[in-house]
Structure formats: structure tokens, C-alpha cells
Amino acid sequence: MRIKHTFRLPADLSGRRAAFGARERRAPTHLVAGGVGFFRSPDG
Fold first, then answer.
1. In this structure, are residues 31 and 17 in contact, taking their beta carbons and an 8 Å threshold?
2. Quick one: which of 4, 9, 20, 26 could link to 14 by a disulfide (CB 3.0–4.6 Å)?
3. Which residues does 24 contact at the CB level (< 8 Å), separation at least 6?
4. How far is the first Cα of the chain from the last one, in angstroms, to the nearest whole number?
5. 44 confidence band (pLDDT: 50, 70, 90)
6. Average pLDDT, stretch 8-31?
7. DSSP label at 26?
């Protein structure tokens, strides 16, 4: 089962995330999901 969480990022971080997503041609949600997955990883 998936649970949806909504949260707000500070404006500067949101802008950097959008710029990085545009450079890498990735959706912002994929960037956040990857970051959370890395953070929760036992290896990270």
C-alpha cells in the first residue's frame, strides 16, 4: 500500500530542484523519490 505525503520545500531549494530536473530531463517528483530512497537506504 502506498501513502501519499505532501510537504513544502523552501523557495531556494525548490528552484534548485527544478533547475536540476530541467538539466537532467527528470520530473521533480522522481528526483525527490530518489533522494528519499537513498536517505532511507541502509547503505546510505
1. yes
2. 9
3. 31
4. 24
5. low
6. 86
7. -
